[in-house]
């Protein structure tokens, strides 16, 4: 009888162990792991399939942009005149921009006359311009103006401004007749402006009789 009781207890214990092992395990919450650039979460659906979601973070950089300074009014007029621009460009000193060459003058004629005079006499144009306007032109790249400000046109020289004839007399050899040379340069400038403002003449029409 004692043996039968022991056997029954062993059998009940074995049955309990099997039942516990066969019972469904509770589903745990999704496990979140972090790899690389962003978080990745892994979970199990009711059907037993495994799902994985991930997010990636993107680092963006902004490249600063620089804006070229606007042209002075005289340079703007010349650059918009396609008939005048090539002539003026041919007179510019090497490495000097149109804006730097013309800033500070009263009008196009005065700037053109100074360019012609320097070219005719071999005078350094930067020196001639400084004598006439008090502004020394920059040769080469012009540094950008501080943010929110316009390029300055303040004279860089406190010397009294000279006329073209006076500037020629100061910078050219004593043998040069400054008044005559100034007049010549002014006539050249006037001719450039006149030619640039005159529309080109249309080509003559060829008649049938002329073709024969």
The SSE order reads HEEEHHHHHHHH
Question: Quick one: how many beta strands?
Answer: 3
Structural class, by secondary structure, is mainly alpha
Helix count equals 9
Major sheet description: 3 strands, antiparallel
Over the alpha carbons, how many angstroms does the gyration radius reach? 44 Å
Q: Runs with pLDDT <50, length 5+?
A: none
Helix content: 40-55%
Strand order of the largest sheet: 1-2-3
The N- and C-terminal alpha carbons lie at a distance of 146 Å
Strand content: 5-15%
Q: Indicate the overall shape.
A: flat
Mean pLDDT: 77
Q: How would you characterize this protein structure?
A:
This protein has helices at 2-22, 73-80, 85-91, 98-102, 108-121, 125-133, 164-171, 178-197, 208-211; strands at residues 31-35, 38-44, 50-54. The termini are far apart. The protein has a domain at 73-142 and 152-197. The mean pLDDT is 77. Strands 1-2-3 form a 3-stranded antiparallel sheet, with no helix packed on it. The relative contact order is 0.10. 45% of the residues lie in helices and 8% in strands. The chain is mainly alpha-helical and 212 residues long. The protein has 9 helices and 3 strands.
């Amino acid at each position: 009888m004692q043996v039968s009781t022991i056997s029954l207890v062993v059998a009940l214990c074995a049955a309990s162990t099997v039942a516990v092992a066969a019972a469904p395990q509770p589903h745990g919450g999704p496990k979140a792991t972090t790899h690389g650039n962003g978080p990745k979460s892994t979970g199990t659906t009711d059907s037993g399939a495994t799902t994985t979601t991930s997010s990636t973070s993107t680092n963006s950089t902004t490249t600063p942009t620089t804006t070229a300074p606007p042209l002075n009014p005289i340079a703007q007029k010349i650059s918009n005149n396609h008939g005048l621009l090539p002539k003026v460009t041919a007179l510019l000193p090497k490495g000097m921009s149109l804006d730097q060459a013309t800033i500070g003058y009263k009008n196009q004629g005065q700037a053109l006359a100074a360019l012609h005079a320097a070219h005719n006499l071999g005078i350094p144009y930067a020196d001639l311009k400084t004598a006439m306007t008090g502004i020394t032109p920059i040769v080469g790249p012009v540094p950008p103006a501080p943010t929110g400000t316009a390029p300055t046109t303040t004279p860089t020289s406190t010397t009294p401004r000279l006329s073209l004839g006076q500037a020629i007399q100061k910078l050219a050899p004593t043998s040069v007749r400054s008044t005559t040379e100034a007049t010549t340069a002014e006539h050249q400038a006037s001719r450039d402006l006149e030619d640039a403002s005159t529309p080109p003449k249309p080509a003559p029409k060829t008649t049938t009789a002329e073709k024969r």
